[in-house]
């Protein structure tokens, strides 16, 4: 039996987090729909990308 893959293990989630952290998103619109459209993420993956983006931004300061 294999262990389920964590949401944050996805390369797409990491790419989306980096895109969001570096200002790729339109800040006047909701992030989840943008991430879902741009990267084909599920809602849970989009939320994980937002969390990871926040960590990336926090490490930068």
Question: How many domains make up the coordinates?
Answer: 1
Largest sheet, in brief, is: none
Helical run tally = 3
Shape: globular
| Helical proportion, percent range | 55-70%
What is the percentage of strand-forming residues? under 5%
Structural class, please?
mainly alpha
How many strand units? 0
Name the average pLDDT. 89
Radius of gyration: 12 Å
The sequence of SSEs as H and E is HHH
Distance from first to last alpha carbon: 42 Å
Q: Low-confidence runs (pLDDT<50, min 5 residues)?
A: none
Care to describe what's here?
The protein is mostly helical. It has one domain. The protein contains three helices and no strands. Helix 1 crosses helix 2 (31-39) and helix 1 packs across helix 3 (43-60). The radius of gyration is 12 Å and the shape is globular. 20% of the residues are buried. The mean pLDDT is 89.
């Amino acid at each position: 039996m294999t262990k389920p893959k964590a949401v944050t293990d996805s390369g797409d989630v990491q790419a989306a987090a980096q895109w969001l952290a570096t200002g790729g998103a339109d800040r006047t619109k909701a992030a989840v729909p943008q991430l879902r459209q741009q990267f084909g993420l599920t809602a849970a993956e989009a939320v994980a990308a937002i969390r990871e983006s926040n960590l990336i931004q926090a490490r930068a300061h």
